[in-house]
Amino acid sequence: MTYRLRRFLLAPTGLHLLCALCALLACLPPLFPELCPQGTEAQVFRYAGYTLMSALIVSGVLMLLSGAAHLLRFNNLRALTQLLKWGSIWGGALGVFAFTAFLADVPAQEAKAEHTPIQTSDTLHPPHDALTGPDALTIPIDTTDAPTDNVVATPNLTLLENKHAELLRTYLERSPRWQGLQTSDTFYSRPGHPVLVPPTASGTPGLVHVCFRHLTEGAPLPEGYTVIKPGDPFPVTESDTQVADLALDLGRNHYLLLAWRGTAHAETAYKALNAAIAAIDRRMQPLVEHPEEETITRMLTGRRSYTGDAPEIRFCEPAGQEGVYQAEVYVNPGEEGTLLFYIRESESGELLRLFSCPAQYSDQSEELFRHDIPGSVPSWSYNRALYPYLPPNAPVFTIRNGSDHRYFGVALEVWFKPADQRRHRYRLLRRCYKVLPFDDSFMSESPVSGAASPVDTEEKDGADVSCPHFPA
């Protein structure tokens, strides 16, 4: 045993070769990242680094012990020989590594991200860009021909309730626009619901907040709402009094809740309410014409691509829902990869939010694909602990929590990371906006529960509409 240990210490050439081989194998994942399972690159690289350092340390310690043992025995030539063997083995390993790295064609190190804008200035734009996707919560309406005496008819909603109630419920439960507010009668004070905006020439602007509500048999009606039916006269409202919140009875315990917030002028309010009811009813037309699951899928997807040659960001703060935001990104990277959506403070560059989703692409250079933020972001990325006041599948996001009501600037950056792990990400565009942090101090009730089934994208209500700034 003593003889073997002495021989092991005096001539560890075989162990040097074994350590060098382990070190070379550890270098393969960084040189060929495509060998790593998807999503485990960082972990594999870390263990490869541990293996490489361990092999170097073990071999170096063995070389020192061997050299010291020979020197203590006054055998200087043998000590020099062991040092030369150790140097030759690791020199050969370094040569093999260099040749392998040449074959792997490793790209240069990624340059540090710059925060200088692509456009000529850092003008802070207001977040009022019109969104075209199906998750958009701000919906413009036209009150020009809306009546003021009776509630307008709802032929599409009524037919769906009577003949295809389950299809209608399936659509409403899967649509992020209509999800998440099934338990709050004061939904109009919470973010994440559609708001229909009538045109305002002058005076106090008005908004119609809407939400669908399905009641189980025997459940009480929403408290504080006046129940009406299509075709009924509007309730009489005293002069200079805000009109009552309405629950439009669609039949089968299904209601459309409507809350007008604006001028107390009854005629203006009733025109807006009727225009809102008619607009929502029109959006159900595709499901009436084709009452099947495929129609729901088409409505939840909407138009995905538009003609254009320059990437674009659309950023919106839904009307009446200060401090929460929606965004759409129109890009076509032309290859498989991941789209990264960074939100940074414009002055310091501090990262405030980060979203990512698979990029849609084609080989048509003049085709831009719509990516909904956060609609196309996987549902597992939602952090309930940080954002308890938003439904799990809410089509909106906040940028920064707090009660500070002062506006501040943010830079929205869109980056693309190719699927090829050896290639670096690169930035597609950058634009700056003026935003307001969300104040959740008024959210005193328990968090709203959302629908259980996640959905990546939603509808443009089945309509093939043109995208502003892009020719159809």
Structure description:
The chain is 29% helix and 20% strand. By secondary structure, it is α+β, with helices and mostly antiparallel strands. It has three domains: 2-104; 111-132 and 305-472, Sandwich (Immunoglobulin-like); 138-297, no CATH class. It has a six-stranded mixed β-sheet with strand order 1-2-3-6-5-4. Strands 7, 8, 9, 12 and 13 form a five-stranded antiparallel β-sheet that branches. Strand 5 (245-251) and strand 6 form a beta hairpin.
Provide the descriptors you would attach to this structure in a database record.
Immunoglobulin-like; 3 domains; 6-stranded mixed beta sheet; 9 helices; 29% helix; disordered C terminus
* Amount of beta strand: 15-25%
Helical segment count? 9
Q: In what order do the strands lie side by side in the largest sheet?
A: 1-2-3-6-5-4
CATH superfamily of the largest domain: Immunoglobulins
Order of helices and strands: HHHHEHHEEEEEHHHEEEEEEEEE
Distance linking N and C termini:
85 Å
Backbone structural class: alpha+beta
Main pleated-sheet profile = 6 strands, mixed
Question: What's a quick, concise take on this entry?
Answer:
The chain is α+β, with helices and mostly antiparallel strands and 472 residues long. It is built from nine helices and 15 strands. It has three domains: 2-104; 111-132 and 305-472, Sandwich (Immunoglobulin-like); 138-297, no CATH class.
